[in-house]
């Protein structure tokens, strides 16, 4: 495995930082071929590829699967995503290898389509959320897609695996009162920052309390709205809106509105908060990936805005 890594590391650096499209994509094809050979090697699942720091490698805590994702940006500013899934075949206990093919341009209703390795809404995944309910385990990925020079995208992507083969299935009906939805896709302007994270966060709850006025003698108590806060683990994200009037539907011109909401997991479903989230916690996770953002093509550079 170390021998494979010695081949893969310089190819990774070239495919992310070479000056021309021909050089980048040629190196990428060689990287794909060698990585696939490595992943098919016996016991490769337990190898962590410590020098491949410029691609995303996420392993589920239960060792059910490992997912590798990265993106190549062309000279025109268009991004193409690539990846592999190594997942356990429940029939024989072996790990199978599936190459991911980014077909996001061919998905006409991507938020309601169930996809797979051959037809994948490509993204570079930066977080894996594992939740459980009644003995069932649910996996939810958070991802980033560079898209093009006009807009970026972030994705909430549930992932499951076909019994008997371990083949990955992207998208799942786990969103409460939204039975057709298989995933969330947020598209926004390249001129802004959009937050999509999983964390312990505060949110407002409203309650009415009876209080007694100190201004009027013997005045009867009256009710006033007294907002309180609670906190829970959730996926929280900015609510997007057009940056100017007349841009409704043109998502490349969408920016955060200043309000934040979230999804919390309960009874096997992701449910949306009705209240606004109060994102007080300090940022402690990297959640961005942009091969064109720095000379060294750092994985998940920190966002510039703070909450």
| CA-CA gap between termini | 41 Å
pLDDT under 50 segments (min length 5)? 294-307
- The overall average pLDDT, rounded, is 86
Helix content: 10-25%
Question: What is the fold's blueprint, element by element?
Answer:
Layout: H1 2-17, H2 21-39, E1 56-59, E2 65-73, E3 79-88, E4 95-101, E5 115-116, E6 124-133, E7 136-145, E8 151-161, E9 168-170, E10 184-189, E11 196-205, E12 208-211, E13 222-225, E14 228-242, E15 254-266, E16 269-272, E17 277-278
Antiparallel strand pairs: 1-2, 2-3, 3-4, 5-9, 6-7, 7-8, 8-9, 8-10, 11-14, 11-17, 12-13, 14-15, 15-16
Helix pairs in contact: 1-2
Could you walk me through the main structural features you see in this protein, from its secondary elements to its overall organization?
Helices cover 11% and strands 40% of the residues. By secondary structure, the chain is mainly β. The strands form four sheets. Strands 5, 6, 7, 8, 9 and 10 form a six-stranded antiparallel beta sheet that branches. Strands 16-15-14-11-17 form a five-stranded antiparallel beta sheet, with no helix packed on it. Strands 1-2-3-4 form a four-stranded antiparallel beta sheet, with helices on one face. α1 runs antiparallel to α2. The protein is globular and about 80 Å long. 31% of the residues are buried. The C terminus is likely disordered.
């Amino acid at each position: 495995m170390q021998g494979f890594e010695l081949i893969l590391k310089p190819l990774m650096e070239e495919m992310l930082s070479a000056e021309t499209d021909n050089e980048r994509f040629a190196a990428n094809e060689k990287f794909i071929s060698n990585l696939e050979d490595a992943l098919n090697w016996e016991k490769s699942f337990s190898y962590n590829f410590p020098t491949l720091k410029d691609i995303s490698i996420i392993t589920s805590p239960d060792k059910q699967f490992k997912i590798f994702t990265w993106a190549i940006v062309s000279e025109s500013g268009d991004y193409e995503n690539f990846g592999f899934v190594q997942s356990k075949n429940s029939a024989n206990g072996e790990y199978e290898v599936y190459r991911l093919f980014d077909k996001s341009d061919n998905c006409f209703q991507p938020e309601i389509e169930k996809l797979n390795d051959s037809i994948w809404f490509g993204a570079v995944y930066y977080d894996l959320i594992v939740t459980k309910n009644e003995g069932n385990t649910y996996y939810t990925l958070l991802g980033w897609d560079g898209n093009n020079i006009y807009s970026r995208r972030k994705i909430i992507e549930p992932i499951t695996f076909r019994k008997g083969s371990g083949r990955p299935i992207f998208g799942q009906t786990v969103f409460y009162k939204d039975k057709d939805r298989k995933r969330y896709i947020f598209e926004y302007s390249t001129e802004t920052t959009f937050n999509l994270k999983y964390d312990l966060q505060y949110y407002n709850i409203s309650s009415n309390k009876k209080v007694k006025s100190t201004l009027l003698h013997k005045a009867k108590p009256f009710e006033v709205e007294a907002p309180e806060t609670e906190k829970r683990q959730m996926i929280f994200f900015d609510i997007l809106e057009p940056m100017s009037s007349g841009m409704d539907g043109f998502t490349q011109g969408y920016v955060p509105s200043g309000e934040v909401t979230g999804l919390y997991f309960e009874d096997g479903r992701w449910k949306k908060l009705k209240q606004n989230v109060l994102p007080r916690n300090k940022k402690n996770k990297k959640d961005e990936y942009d091969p064109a953002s720095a000379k060294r093509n750092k994985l998940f550079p920190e966002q510039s805005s703070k909450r």
